[in-house]
C-alpha cells in the first residue's frame, strides 16, 4: 500500500506542477482554448482540401480534354490527317536537324568570333598579305643563306690565291738565286780555269729569264684574280646587308599582322577564318531551320484548332505521337494513369474534407459560441458549407 501511495503522490505532484504553468487560466478557459485550436486545425484542413480539390478538378478536366483531343485527331478526315502527319514529319525532321546543329562542338571561341566580326572585311586581304610576306621571308632567308655561303667560298678562294701568290713569289726568288749562282759559276770557271762557260752561263741566264717572265705573268694573273675575288667578297657583304634590311622590314610587318590577328602564321589565320565562316553558315542554317520550324508549327496548331482541339499547342511536344500509333498508345496510357491517380487523390481529399467537417460540426455543437469564428474563417476563403 505504501508503494501505491507514493506512486499516487508522484502523479498528483506532476498534475499540480503542470497546473502551475497555467495559473492564470482556469479549467473552462483551458478547455475552450483546446477546442478552439482543434477547430482552427480542422478549418484549415477544410480550406486546404477545398482549394486542392479545385486544383484536382481542373487538372482532371484538363486530362479529360486531352482524351477528347486525341479522339478528335483520330476522327479527322483522311486528307486532313495526312496533312497533319506531313506537318508533324517536317517538324520532327527540323527538330532533329536543330538538335544536330546544337550538338556541333564550338569551332571558335566567343572572343575570337567577335574579333573576326569586327575585322571581317579585312581578313581576306590580310591572308593574301601574309602569304606575300611569308613567301618573301622564305626568299630572303634563301638569299641570306646563299650570300653567307658565297662569302665563305670567296674567302676560301682568296686565301687559296694568296697562297698561290706566295708560292710564285718564292719560286721566282729561288729561280733568280739559282740563275745568279749559275752565271757566277760560269764566270769563275771561265776566268779561273780558262774554261769557256760563257755560252752555258748565257743559256742558263736566258732560261732563268724566261721562267721568271712566266712566273711574273702568273703572279700578275693571280693578283688580278685575288683583286676580283676581294671585290666579289665586298659585293656579297653589301648585298647581305641589303637583304638583312629587307629581313628586318619583313619581320616587322609580319609581327604587326600576327599581333593584330593574334596568330603565329598565315595557315593559323586561314584555319580560324575557315572555322569562322563555317560557324556563320551553321548559324544561318539554324536561323533558317528555326524559321521553317515556326511556320510548320503554326500550320500544325492551326489545323488542330480547326479540328476543335481544346489545347492544340500541347501537341508540339507530342509530335512523335502524331506519327506513330504506338507513341499515341503510350500517351493514352500515361493519361489513364494520371487520371486514375487524380481520382484517388480526389477521393482521399474529399474523405479528409468530410472528416474535418464532421469534427467541426461536433465542436460547434458542443461550443456554439465558436460558430461565428468558424463562419468568418470559411467566408474569408469563400467556402460554403
Task: Give structural attributes.
10 helices, mainly alpha, Helix Hairpins, rod-shaped, 385 residues, 87% helix
What does this molecule look like?
- The chain has ten helices and no strands.
- The chain is mainly α.
- It has two domains: 32-76 and 308-380; 110-262, Helix Hairpins (Orthogonal Bundle).
- α5 (123-192) runs antiparallel to α6 (198-261) and α5 (123-192) runs antiparallel to α7.
- The model is unreliable at 1-33 (pLDDT under 50).
* Terminal residue distance: 56 Å
CATH topology of the largest domain: Helix Hairpins
Strand content: under 5%
The coarse silhouette is: rod-shaped
- DSSP helix count? 10
Query: How much helix, percentage-wise, in residues?
Result: over 70%
H/E series: HHHHHHHHHH
Give the beta-strand count.
0
